[in-house]
Automatic annotation (TrEMBL):
<dbReference type="InterPro" id="IPR038532">
    <property type="entry name" value="NDUFS4-like_sf"/>
</dbReference>
<keyword id="KW-0679">Respiratory chain</keyword>
<keyword id="KW-0809">Transit peptide</keyword>
<keyword id="KW-0249">Electron transport</keyword>
<protein>
    <submittedName>
        <fullName>ETC complex I subunit</fullName>
    </submittedName>
</protein>
<dbReference type="InterPro" id="IPR006885">
    <property type="entry name" value="NADH_UbQ_FeS_4_mit-like"/>
</dbReference>
<keyword id="KW-0472">Membrane</keyword>
<dbReference type="Pfam" id="PF04800">
    <property type="entry name" value="NDUS4"/>
</dbReference>
<dbReference type="GO" id="GO:0022900">
    <property type="term" value="P:electron transport chain"/>
</dbReference>
<dbReference type="GO" id="GO:0016020">
    <property type="term" value="C:membrane"/>
</dbReference>
<keyword id="KW-0813">Transport</keyword>
Amino acid sequence: MPAQIVKKATIYQRPKNAMQSGKARMSDWVLEFPQNEKRHADPLMGWSGSGDTQVQVQLNFPNLAAAQDYAARKGIKADVVASPAHKLKIQAYSDNFR
C-alpha cells in the first residue's frame, strides 16, 4: 500500500491592489498551493516552467470558514495567513500646505 501524499496549501485574504483605489475582491479568501518542484528554463523558448501543475491552482472562497471546510474535506493541510490590520491616515486636504 503506497504512502498517502499529504498536500499542503496556504489560505490568505487578498490584499488591496496598490495600483487602484477600489476594494474589489478584497473580501475573498484564496487557497493556494506552494511550489514543490524546482523551475527550469525551456531550452527552445527560454520560458521557465516545471512539471508541478498544482502551483497553477488558485481557489477562491467567500469566507475563511468555507476555505477551511474545503481543505478539511479534501485532506489538505492548510496554513492560514492572517491579513494585516488596515491603518487609515485621516487627513484633510489643507494639511498638505502646513
